[in-house]
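[job 4471] stage=fold_predict status=RUNNING
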Amino acid sequence: MEKFEHEYNADQIQVLEGLEHVRKRPGMYIGSVSIRGLHHLVYEIVDNSVDEALAGYCKNINVTIEEGNVICVEDDGRGIPVDIHSKTKISAAETVYTKLNAGGKFGGDSGYKVSGGLHGVGASVVNALSAWTEVTIQRDGGIFQMKFEKGKTVQSLTRIGDSNKTGTKVRFFADGSIFETLNYEYSVLEERFREMAFLTKGLRITLEDKRGEEPRKSDFCFEGGLKSFVEYLNKNKEKINKDPIYIEKDGDVPVEIAVQYTTAYSENIYSFVNNINTVEGGTHLEGFKRALTKSFNDYAREKNILKEKDPNLVGDDIREGITAVISVKVKEPQFEGQTKTKLGNSDVAGVVTSIVNEALENFLEENPNIAKAILEKCISASRAREAARKARELVRRKTALESTTLPGKLADCSSKNPEECEVYIVEGDSAGGSAKQGRDRKFQAILPLWGKMLNVEKARADKIYGNDKLNPVILAVGAGIGADFDITKIRYGKVIIMADADVDGAHIRTLLLTFFFRYMRPLIENGNVYLAQPPLYKFSKKGMEDLYWYEDDMTGAFKILDERGVDRDQVSIQRYKGLGEMNPEQLWETTMNPETRILIKVSLEDAMQADQTITLLMGDDVNPRRDFIVENAKFVKNLDV
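[job 4471] inference complete, writing structure tokens
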């Protein structure tokens, strides 16, 4: 990797303000004090090492979860500068760890050409939110160490030995008085570091977990960069172009892009700026989409694949089944949007468009068979889109003309305020009937579903409109689907899936969640989708208030009975096989009453992981699904034999 030639010493560490309020208001700096915030601490330190790799000075990053949930991050970069900072009068290394917004990543005269950690709060925030932190630095012929407790220096930077190596090692233990949990999830960290390695070609990142009896270790290094990334994302999909289209161009705005088409119907494009996942897109994504649409239309016209009378293919047609990863490096990125992850630099759009246009023009000319196969899929998507439009209009006309609803459809609530309204999508007529009788009619609507539901992972949008199982869901939510979905038009603030706690119920939940993820994703992103949790057991005895239990492990229930002084032998235990076994009063009391019910909010932590999981579970390829079932069978609960 090309090195960014610039002096990196104490004077490149710029101080913007002192370290304040981090411990009192951690959410302002890391989002939350949940496990998500806990993982964020690790990412902040690793990001610093990745920035060294982007500058061309770091080849290896080793992350270890030690016994007791201590984190160790070690790299072979240049090492944090150890000389005295001219403004703070303490070492530059101590400045980085004790001063908020101090780092080598600000302005054109900084120690980095591009950087993911542009806010400069990483090291100091991690230090502030840790019970203790220990930093060991190798550079300038020596080994230096400093220690902190809750952000305060307990040992200033001290030379403890000699070394001809360079690098930084950070060990820290998160503060248990701040975080809800200190137990790191290996799989979450593993996925993040795999992504980092894909985005930084040639960088090796290892993750080792020394907790427990069986230590785990993962090793990530991808010389193929984004090409390897796309191949990984599509590992369970049937490909149209076996080898991804790979685009790489240096310059003022280095661009790296990989594109692969699959036989799937969904579009998956992921964009990054300086290794930051720009989940809201931005100008780099706009430039890519513009070039993609133009290049394929131009080629189709030139080769007479699109006739003179045929309309141009639209972007949605050309992006059906695409998996693409776009990565750009920008010296002074301007982020905007709700989550500050949307690139706003206007010049980047033109740069990306120009590079992609040229690369795609060459690829299509050199690979006519692949070009034809992709365009055949695009044209098929165009026809399906037109069929979907007609079906959508037919559904709208039919709905407008209908004066009454068909049996088994929506039983609406009286309130029209979406913020207080909720709709239960209920499995089966029997449960639907109980739910209708037991509900609070003011704010609770009931939509019963029955029979086999369409797996949208294997169907285009034109097959969804008019589908007798999904169309009622579309109409009930009231905000459209796909590109037409408008979150501001939803009729219910909570869309609650209520299915039996068995295999069939789990299948229905999965089918509905697949539909919401593929065609109403903002509904999940906005936190409007929930899973109802009906009880599994009822403990009853004459003269005793019924006890409902929601877990297969009944140890806790027996403990409650013991505390009540109830003889276990006199208690009748009923195992609910389905919602239909409960009468309206029981269903209200256990599953629908806002005062007593248990709801699980469906959230979207990682869109890439969600896409892969849905493809695995709901797609056409059987072998990966079989492997997944075998691997995870030991974790299954509530399996009816």
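[job 4471] summary: The domain at 226-384 is CATH 3.30.230.10 (Ribosomal Protein S5; domain 2).
[job 4471] exit 0
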